[in-house]
Amino acid sequence: MEKLVACVQKKPGALCRLICFPWAGGGTSQLARWGKLFNDSIEVFCIRLPGRESRLEEPFANDMTSIVNEVTTVLLKELKEKPFAFFAHSFGTYTSLAVALHLKEKYRLEPVHLFLSSAHAPNSAGHLTLKNGTIPDDDDDFLTCMEILGGSYEIPQDEDIRKNMVVTSRADSRVFQTFSFEKTEKNIPFSCDVTYFYGSDDKIYDAQGWQELTCGDASFYQLPGDHFYLLKPSNESFLIKHITRCIENAGL
Hints:
Layout lengths: L4 E2 L9 E6 L7 H4 L9 E6 L16 H18 L2 E6 L1 H17 L5 E5 L7 H7 L7 H12 L8 H18 L16 E7 L18 E6 L9 H16 L4
Parallel strand pairs: 2-3, 2-4, 4-5, 5-6, 6-7
Antiparallel strand pairs: 1-3
Helix pairs in contact: 2-3
């Protein structure tokens, strides 16, 4: 499990686990540290995909199915053991959704809450446009495309860091394009509450469709900042407090 999951602070007595799914090209460093910011009732697991950090020598995932199979196989015991919630940002939102759909369909397991960030709802026109787009082979063209389609962010000046980010983000983008979800009128996959966050200065996401994926409540929060608004200390503090309140009010 240590290969797939970063957990900086184990909390055996926690009432709930928050499983975090990073953005395209991202690792576990930012979200895993949330484990030290939550109180003892919430233990944080951050998913580490192949091709980065301690898994640098592994080939990137070829498709979303391989990621879903790894996450569910490795974490199934923990997911059955106690309640869990998902937090996911950008590309990670689709990874988390794919995992949640598989868990519900195959194991009748469901998060107590889905916390989603900066992503089009999968049943929206915006999502289909992004999914069907062409991924440029040229690095500069790819970065431009990412900024247009995936939101604004600061591109690293260091050439090695920049190159690594491009390679990893391109691989994650290809995985994203293998994610498939079709919403029908009678298909409401979840019953848990859903909260969607986004940055005020980011691109506009087609987000209202998230409400159609659950029988539970759906809430929407705009926070100051760009695509990576969640890295600002004030916003991070808001997210920690809000997620804690939602989980503690879930009646675990």
